[in-house]
Amino acid sequence: MRRWPGGGFRDNTTRMTHFLASVRSRAEAELVLASGADIVDLKDPGQGALGAVAPGVIRDCLAAIGGRKAVSATVGDVPMHPDTVAGAVAATADLGVDIVKLGIMPGGDPLGCFELLAGLNLRAGLVLVFFADSLPDFDPVKAAAGSGASGVMLDTMGKKTGSLPDHMPLPAIARFVDRTRDAGLQAGVAGSLRADHLQPLLALSPDVIGFRGALCEQGVRGRELDPKACAEIGALIAANRSLPEARFEARASSAMC
Prior knowledge:
257 residues, alpha/beta, 8-stranded parallel barrel, TIM Barrel, disordered N terminus
């Protein structure tokens, strides 16, 4: 059994997938907790693919959550300059979150960033986020392992250009999840996901599956969260956890595609 930083556990027998919900305020955090979220992800959708919320908002949310669930926070869409990235990651970790999410943006010196990150003594777990619609020309899993990260997440940068499965076929996502797990890291998936994406993606048994847009009013990620939509996603994930045999059969089918 291996521990997801600051939160739940992943048992290799049940392979439970954790529900990550992205929020931008204390009120939204309370809403997703009531809907069954396992990880409260602090992110401002109005500031980019992985826009950061203000430090004061992070502290306010941490106080409200009070350790009930794991809390992650993005550092923003920062350029891949080693000193800039290391400073942003360290500053976010020092706020007391359990997980810091760093999006790997195009350009810059990402390999230099990973080298510098590997030497940091962070107070939080580090998750590197790679964008399926802007993948780098190096191996994301190998790079993450060398950076000292505890997990890797697939996401999308252009939120209006399709969801994760639109940019990467299911068998490729399955291989990514398997390679990440084989490297001893947690694997996450996100990227404009909808309720109808849940079943095929959960069949791949990622450690984390993340949502924002599907939780919002009319499915628009910049709008307020819709309690009914949040409850629907939470219920679908919870129901899937009680059907491990069907899930593994679906996973085997996708692997043969």
